[in-house]
């Protein structure tokens, strides 16, 4: 299949992953679980109720054009929970309780989720009822992350192999050669004089599977009684498994004459002859064995890739035997654009590194900063950009400070489909560059098996060839230089000790405490060495912005090659000082030592203070504005960063307070203010944040029901998603309590006590307000297992206790006229839970003496007093 056709297939299948189960009309969502049940409640009220509006559906989020991407290829959420200490619940019941909480949280925007499986990390995979855009999914993940007991939540994105159109006339494997000026390859030809890998060594490949019958691959697989086919198929999407059988112990690819995974595997370890008559193409580490984890077809998901990463690390993946052959490196020529690494991927990368596995990832093919491409943008990953034969950056290759090294990635010849080597084919992409690096790592660790992950990365960087004169690559965007396999081996065995930082640069906030960085050494282990560490001031001042490094000299005895740690205290200054920076620098003290570039790493300290802070009280609404043309009028010490205009507010909060914040754009159309709001603790650390409630709904932001854990002054940062686009306009900021039901002071419409406010609750409330009793009150209702009020008497008592004239103010008196009626208050509740807004809620549903006679007043009451989260 031609490469450009292959990419279209990636996109096509990516759109079809997942299922769709939508209430209401196609393209719409209902904000509750059952519109029909709520409509039945309206029917109960029909007598004497005039002007009742028809139910309104809420359109599905269509994305935010200001975001990097919003293609509908996010299939669900990956959610990890804290251990539920003290809860003696069966696993299924605990899972049901957690799912109910998340479902309740997402219900107001019409999103349904269902449990799929538990990942190797212990996180749970939840599926949306239909694919979502990345911007919407990130907002949902941020909201779910704020739930008590949730460690993290991340979108389960669609990932794709990184490949671009190829030139089929390119005649040879230039990527393994080195002819200065004409074939700026990775110099494996010279490296093979030292090592070609090791039969005892395993190299991992997470990709689209392999052709197990390809004669260049069939004898190169790491076979084991548990995994007789050389790996495992983690691709779990039943609609498009490619090989027709879903997850199993056979990582066979989708039938193809130029399979992505087979091509990648061939570059790393295809069968190679060094004597006699050879056939086909060569592999970079041909004496090593390959372990294959299939995690995608033409596309895949983060969840399957993350399971494959944990499996490679030797972690337990539910339903899969533990991998007994931990690889020295794992190649990941896939990714998803448009977001950060995220905690789920970072956890998997950390697991690989903890198992001494070097994670190598393609930087991506969108000619953008690698910072938005996962998993290449994860901390500790060797991110690889692509170069052409002249050592210039490939036109498609991603770039940026996160790139570690650049390798051959244009017109790469490798294995293709099934059978004989005459199906070898050419491909281009960072997917093709990464396996050159992975193969080089295999050679290094075959030569020196005890190398740790940091030392491998240091060797790659220290031995990288400078970019040729005139190259479009520089060390600021393409890493340390061009991959050179032979120089990397020489760096390990040479007489010179090479010492360098493991972190390329660090950005932190002034209240983050200590800066911690590490230093590694390679080369001549028998030599004792000492290097010096100095902090060079810049805009940050010694003793004012940072303290003295914990060590001003780092010493290694002979045969000590362990890493060293340097700690620098960061000092928080009061008042808005602006962003400042300093550098940490290594210098030689003992002879025979070389400092690996860069000798200095830049440390950027971001401000957290604002000179102007506006007090706000609970229940108060403040009006404000942001203007990109007048940055001098705003704080630039906000947590979003110095490039953003920020208005900061403060309020007195107590431990246990439940806080909600609405930031609502009041900017007149067609202009847009794309809001972003943060809740900060007394130490100005981020407690919660939100971008869009729902895309296209005025781009408003909302933090719902966050429970404070400290007493003291808290802060709110009102800012924008972008630093320039959609960053000018007016807004209202509202702070209010939104806690659980407190008898005598708040109301609760969770009538059945199952933790959700849904159609069951609205129907029960309306029936009771209409005077129903006994079996008529609960007939036809199906209660969830965790519901605490399921009998007519329990339901009636709960509602009546909130509406007795002899007790506290009538909780269900939504319109504030001093009485609770099914024809007014009951109808208002039903309409609000249907998702109606504005006049559609109040028309024909207000008493003559109503004091809450507008939708904003009704919504404020339900959200503030009854614990709901209704949208404006």
Tell me about this structure.
- 21% of the residues lie in helices and 23% in strands.
- It has 872 residues and is of the alpha+beta class.
- Strands 3, 4, 5, 6, 10, 12 and 14 form a seven-stranded antiparallel sheet that branches.
- The protein is globular.
Which secondary structure elements does this structure contain, and how are they paired or packed?
Elements: H1 3-16, E1 28-29, H2 35-44, E2 58-59, E3 74-81, H3 91-106, E4 113-118, E5 124-132, H4 134-145, E6 150-161, H5 188-191, E7 202-207, E8 231-233, H6 260-269, E9 289-294, E10 300-301, H7 302-312, E11 329-332, E12 334-337, H8 342-354, E13 358-362, E14 373-374, E15 382-387, E16 405-408, E17 412-414, E18 425-427, H9 430-447, H10 453-463, H11 485-493, E19 497-501, E20 505-509, E21 514-522, E22 529-537, E23 553-556, E24 564-569, E25 580-588, E26 593-595, E27 600-606, E28 613-615, E29 621-626, E30 647-653, E31 658-665, E32 675-680, E33 686-690, E34 701-707, E35 712-720, E36 729-737, H12 759-769, H13 775-778, H14 792-801, H15 822-834, H16 839-842, H17 855-866
Parallel strand pairs: 7-9, 7-11, 8-9, 11-13, 13-15, 15-16, 19-26, 20-27, 28-30
Antiparallel strand pairs: 1-2, 3-5, 3-6, 4-5, 6-10, 6-12, 12-14, 17-18, 19-21, 21-24, 22-23, 22-25, 25-27, 29-36, 30-35, 31-34, 31-36, 32-33, 32-35
Helix pairs in contact: 2-12, 2-15, 6-9, 7-8, 9-11, 10-11, 12-14, 12-15
């Amino acid at each position: 299949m031609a490469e450009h056709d292959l990419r279209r297939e990636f996109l096509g299948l990516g759109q079809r992953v997942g299922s769709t189960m939508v209430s209401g009309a196609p393209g719409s969502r209902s904000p509750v679980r059952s519109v029909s049940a709520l409509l039945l409640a309206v029917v109960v009220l029909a007598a004497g109720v005039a002007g009742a509006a028809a139910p309104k559906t809420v359109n599905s989020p269509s994305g935010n054009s200001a975001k990097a991407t919003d293609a509908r290829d996010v299939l669900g959420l990956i959610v990890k929970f804290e251990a539920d200490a003290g809860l003696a619940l069966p696993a299924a019941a605990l899972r049901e309780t957690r799912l109910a909480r998340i479902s309740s949280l997402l219900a107001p925007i019409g999103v349904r989720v269902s449990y799929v499986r538990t990942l190797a990390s212990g996180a749970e995979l939840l599926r949306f009822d239909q694919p979502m855009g990345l911007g919407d999914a990130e907002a949902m993940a941020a909201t779910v992350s704020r739930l008590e007991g949730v460690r993290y939540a991340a979108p389960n994105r669609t990932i794709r192999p990184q490949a671009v159109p190829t030139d089929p006339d390119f005649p040879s494997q230039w990527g393994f050669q080195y002819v200065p000026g004409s074939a700026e390859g990775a110099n494996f030809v010279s490296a093979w004089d030292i090592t070609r890998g090791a039969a005892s060594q395993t190299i991992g490949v997470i990709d689209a599977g392999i052709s197990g019958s390809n004669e260049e691959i069939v004898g190169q697989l790491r076979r084991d009684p548990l995994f007789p086919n050389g790996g495992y198929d983690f691709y779990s999407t039943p609609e498009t498994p490619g090989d027709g059988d879903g997850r199993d112990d056979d990582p066979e690819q989708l039938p193809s004459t130029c399979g992505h995974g087979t091509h990648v595997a061939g570059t790393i370890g295809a069968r190679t002859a060094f004597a006699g008559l050879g056939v086909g193409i060569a592999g970079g580490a041909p004496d090593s064995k390959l372990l294959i984890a299939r995690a995608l077809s033409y596309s895949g998901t983060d969840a399957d890739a993350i399971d494959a990463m944990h499996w490679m690390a030797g972690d337990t993946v539910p339903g899969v035997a533990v991998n007994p052959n931990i690889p020295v490196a794992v190649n990941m020529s896939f990714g998803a654009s448009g977001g950060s690494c995220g905690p789920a991927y970072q956890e998997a990368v950390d697991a690989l590194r903890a198992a001494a596995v070097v994670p190598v990832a393609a930087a991506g093919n969108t000619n953008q900063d690698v910072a938005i491409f996962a998993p290449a943008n994860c901390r500790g990953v060797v991110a690889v950009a692509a170069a052409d034969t002249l050592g210039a950056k490939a036109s498609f290759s991603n770039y940026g400070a996160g790139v570690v090294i650049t390798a051959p990635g244009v017109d790469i010849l490798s294995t293709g489909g099934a059978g004989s080597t005459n199906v070898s084919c050419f491909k281009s992409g960072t997917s093709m560059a990464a396996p050159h690096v992975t193969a080089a790592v295999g050679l290094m660790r075959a030569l020196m098996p005890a190398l740790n992950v940091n030392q491998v990365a240091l060797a790659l960087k220290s031995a990288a060839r400078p970019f040729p004169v005139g190259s479009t690559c520089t060390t600021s965007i393409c890493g340390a230089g061009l991959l050179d396999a032979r120089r990397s081996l020489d760096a390990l065995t040479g007489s010179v000790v090479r010492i360098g930082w493991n972190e390329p640069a660090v950005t932190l906030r002034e209240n983050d405490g200590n800066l911690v960085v590490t230093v590694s050494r390679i080369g001549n282990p028998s030599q004792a060495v000492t290097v010096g560490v100095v902090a060079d001031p810049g805009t940050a001042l010694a003793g004012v912005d940072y303290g003295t490094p914990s060590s001003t000299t780092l010493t290694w005895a002979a045969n000590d090659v362990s890493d060293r740690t340097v700690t620098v205290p960061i000092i928080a200054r009061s008042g808005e000082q602006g962003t400042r920076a300093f550098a940490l620098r290594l210098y030689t003290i003992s002879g025979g030592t070389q400092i690996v570039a860069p000798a200095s790493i830049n440390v950027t300290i971001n401000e957290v203070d604002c000179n102007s802070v506006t007090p706000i009280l609970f229940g108060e609404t403040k009006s404000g504005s942001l203007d990109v043309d007048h940055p001098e009028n705003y704080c630039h010490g906000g947590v979003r960063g110095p490039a953003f205009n920020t208005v900061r507010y403060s309020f007195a909060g107590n431990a246990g307070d439940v806080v909600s914040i609405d930031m609502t754009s009041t900017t007149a159309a067609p202009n847009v203010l794309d809001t972003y709001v943060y809740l900060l603790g007394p130490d100005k650390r981020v407690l919660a944040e939100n971008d869009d409630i729902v895309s296209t709904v005025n781009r408003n932001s909302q933090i719902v029901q966050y429970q404070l854990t400290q007493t003291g002054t808290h802060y709110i940062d009102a800012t924008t998603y972008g630093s320039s686009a959609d960053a000018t306009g007016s807004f209202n900021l509202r702070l209010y309590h939104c806690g659980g039901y407190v008898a005598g002071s708040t109301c609760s419409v969770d009538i059945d006590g199952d933790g959700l406010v849904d159609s069951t609750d609205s129907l029960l409330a309306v029936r009771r307000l209409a005077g129903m009793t006994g079996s008529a009150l609960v007939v036809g209702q199906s209660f969830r297992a965790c519901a605490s009020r399921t009998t007519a008497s329990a339901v009636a008592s709960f509602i009546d206790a909130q509406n007795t004239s002899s007790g506290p103010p009538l909780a269900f008196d939504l319109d504030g006229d001093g009485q609770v009626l099914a024809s007014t208050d009951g109808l208002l509740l039903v309409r609000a839970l249907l998702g109606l807004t504005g006049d559609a809620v109040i028309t024909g549903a207000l008493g003559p003496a109503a004091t809450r006679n507008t939708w904003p007043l009704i919504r404020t009451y339900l959200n503030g007093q009854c614990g709901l989260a209704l949208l404006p």
